[in-house]
From TrEMBL:
Keywords: Plasmid
SUPFAM superfamilies the record matches: cAMP-binding domain-like (SSF51206)
Source domain of life: Bacteria
Organism field: Ilyobacter polytropus (strain ATCC 51220 / DSM 2926 / LMG 16218 / CuHBu1)
Official protein name in the record: Transcriptional regulator, Crp/Fnr family
Residues in Cyclic nucleotide-binding domain copies: 18-137
Keyword Transmembrane belongs to the record: no
One Pfam family recorded for the sequence: cNMP_binding
InterPro entries assigned: cNMP-bd_dom (IPR000595), cNMP-bd_dom_sf (IPR018490), RmlC-like_jellyroll (IPR014710)
PANTHER family registered for this protein in UniProt: CHROMOSOME UNDETERMINED SCAFFOLD_10, WHOLE GENOME SHOTGUN SEQUENCE, ION_TRANS DOMAIN-CONTAINING PROTEIN
Length: 155
């Protein structure tokens, strides 16, 4: 990742909830171990059923999260700037629950699973904060899903 791109990302860290509670130096350490990606419109970033390899943070653009079942596609949600995906599968240690496709050219920070685990040996404070933030994101999404399910059931 170029130093210019790293500086640009550091300017927007308050918009990225997975980096909550981390200072600029700590986020810089994460970015040093991460990849910057630009993925073209209509490309899959993550495929349902595959082994998770990374956490993706959306810097610019939008994605659609969808599941496939019985040869049908079921859209689940849309995500945009500052949101992340892939964290649930890495925390839960199970295959990707859904596929994720870009809706437009989209920029990401990719935090590889092995780099995340390296922080558990190199910098436990960063690791703990990231894990807590990932758990919060998962809980927020679960609460939103629960609410949607309840609204649907009450109709």
């Amino acid at each position: 990742m170029s130093e210019d791109k790293k500086a640009e990302i550091l300017q927007m860290i308050e918009k990225i909830s997975i980096f909550g509670g981390l200072n600029t130096e700590q986020v810089g350490k994460i970015l040093d171990q991460s990849n910057y990606l630009i993925v073209a419109k209509d490309e899959n970033v993550m495929l349902q059923g595959m082994s998770p390899k990374s956490i993706y943070v959306i810097l610019k653009g939008r994605v659609e999260v969808y599941e496939e079942s019985n040869n049908k596609i079921y859209p689940m949600m849309f995500m945009g700037e500052g949101e992340c995906f892939g964290e649930v599968e890495i925390l839960g240690i199970f295959p990707n629950m859904a596929s994720v496709k870009t809706m437009e050219d989209t920029e990401f920070i990719e935090i590889p699973k092995n780099q995340l685990h390296n922080f558990s040996h190199k910098d436990m404070k960063i690791f703990n904060i990231l894990i807590l933030n990932m758990a919060r994101e998962a809980c927020r999404r679960l609460a939103k899903s629960d609410k949607s399910l309840m609204e649907y059931m009450c109709k």
